[in-house]
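Quick question: what would this complex look like in 3D?
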Amino acid sequence: MTALEGRAVARGRRQWPLPKQADPDAPLLVVEGLTTHFRLGRQTVHAVDDVSFTLNDGEALGIAGESGCGKTTTALSLLRLLPSNAEVVAGSVRLFGIDLLTKSDNALRRYRWREISIIFQGAMNALNPVRRVGDQIAEPMMERQGLAKGAAARRAGELLELVGVPRARGRAYPHELSGGMRQRAMIAMALACDPAVIIGDEPTTALDVMVQAQILELLEDLRSTLGLSLILITHDLSVLAETCDRVMIMYAGRVAEEGPVGRVYRAPRHPYTQMLLAAFPDVHSGRRDLGTIPGMPPDLRTPPPGCRFHPRCPAAMEVCRTEVPPEVTFGDRVRVACHLYPPGSDGTPRSLPPVRGAGAEVGQ
Amino acid sequence: MSGTVREAGAPVPVGGELIRLEGLQVHFPIRGGFGDLIRRRPGGVVRAVDGINLTIRRGEVLSLVGESGSGKTTTGRVIVKLTRPTGGRLLLEGADVTDVWGGDRLRAYRRRVQLIFQDPYETLNPKQTIHDFVAEPLEVQGLGGSPAERERRVLDAIDTAGLRPASDFAFRYPHELSGGQRQRVVIAGALVLDPKIVVADEPVSMLDVSIRTEILNLMLDLRRGRDLTYLFITHDLSVAWVIADRIAVMYLGRIMEMGAADEVINDPRHPYTRALVSVMPTPEPPQPGHRARRVILAGETPDAAHVPTGCRFHPRCPLAEQAGIMERCRTEEPPLIELGGGRASACWLAESGKPLPAVERRIGATGLGATAG
């Protein structure tokens, strides 16, 4: 499917017109130079720094990295759903060409849930414990789409069946559902307003292996039947391999590498991507030699100068300590921010020198 | 990239029996509410662990794998004597310790059997220094001799857990440490008594992957250096495969399959294990046809208060119907059948010793039916 057909499918599906200022030819979601800071006393945490990416219609983008790499903050920044001590200080988020970050809170509300919805990790915490699940799914449709109560309830029932929950279970309270069922209800709620973009923030992390497989398959099926545009955030790279078209690896608030899943996973370029992938065992290919990444992610109140990965990088050079590596996009549509791959280089993946002392030693 | 979990080295000799569970059973009564009382509704029972036999041999890493509600954690808690079994026996080096619940014998037992919990954030007391946390077991046990000797043992344990220099770490507080370092502190606390066996309940589940490998490495190094045995409890089959010599797969309070780690993963002899292996995510991009090979079981693990009759896995078993032995699966519970070579499976189909038949149809797991591509 070409990008154009994908767009036609996804936008053709819409039950209501695009927002007035929308540019029908603009890509679905374009994020440029997104920079988000947290205030911590007098200090500033540089949580997300100059992050750019594009999401096309019908595409699934995975954002992966370890805790504290800024993947969730990036997602929450798109809709300014941040805690009160956080602020988007630079960058733009364009949905159908409309810059969401220049909108007032009131104007932005129109886009939350209706255009971009989020499946949170802990469905038990995200759902209201004292309201029936079906009512909670119906609520955004009444509020944002102006559906009458009966119509919204009917639609909520349909959505529940779509995600594999018997319609009658809509009368249950969240605690009466199992973890997997709650996560399905959460997905139904995210689908409620037929949004342009759905963000899954660790949607399967707390679930059992088999339930995780069920939910991932559900997301894949929904993608193929409904043409969803999806951003999937996870710490578990192996979850993304089957679900996403493209993957973006983040480290310490910046993009390390981004590109088609097959390219990034088979021929990782950035040393961090290489080491991260090597830390996952793979029973299907029989690889159980696990690599380590010595040291710890930096304290983002005082991020290291130059490349943020250089203190842990076995291939670090002098330039890595002083200069932020530029993002270079190669012919296979992989974008890398690493001095090993300067602009104009052919981008052949470089193997890393062996890590010394990777064992029971502590970085500090 | 070096630092692999299984570095080349002399294989660790596995010795005789260290821990044995015989017909272990842990049933929890369900305390009904007031409504049940006045309606004279009988209270039920949760069969958390429902008759398992398991031997842990000296020097081995045995991994207990299962989903939530499989009884793996309860089994671990029985072994460290935090939960009383309602039936069966627990033996340490051949001696029955099932009824040891106090006094010197319990203290002596605890010296030899230590526990590592999942969450290093909750295990540590935020107001306690690393030193005091590690020293506490020695105080409780009245061990360590002179203060100087005790001090030496504490620093030694901290050092062995890879927190170096130990004297520097000893007087820090948990909030000054990273997640990986905290888990090392927990390990130091378990090591200070010089135990024979460590029961580790999901010790790496809370950790980022890059740190996970370090902790697994540390545990294996300690096995060699300190002559340790591990019972490694995890929900993650791939972690079990990486660290364990043998794997026992639990489902709803019973062991479904047991054997050498490689064999269980590469040639599962129980349909439940096979399904678990098939859905394990892989960091490789999918090959064509991979999706078709996945066996996603429908539904969820039944609750342990209502264990199905016969084989407890039969309502979700993708083979029960097609193999034409459904009747037997529904009525008769298979024991853990020995298959030779240290392997065992609790499946009637494995009885013949042949590999399991292929799953013929794909199980509609999502409720979307035929929409799957």
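Answer marked as accepted. Chain B has two domains: 17-122+195-251, 268-368.
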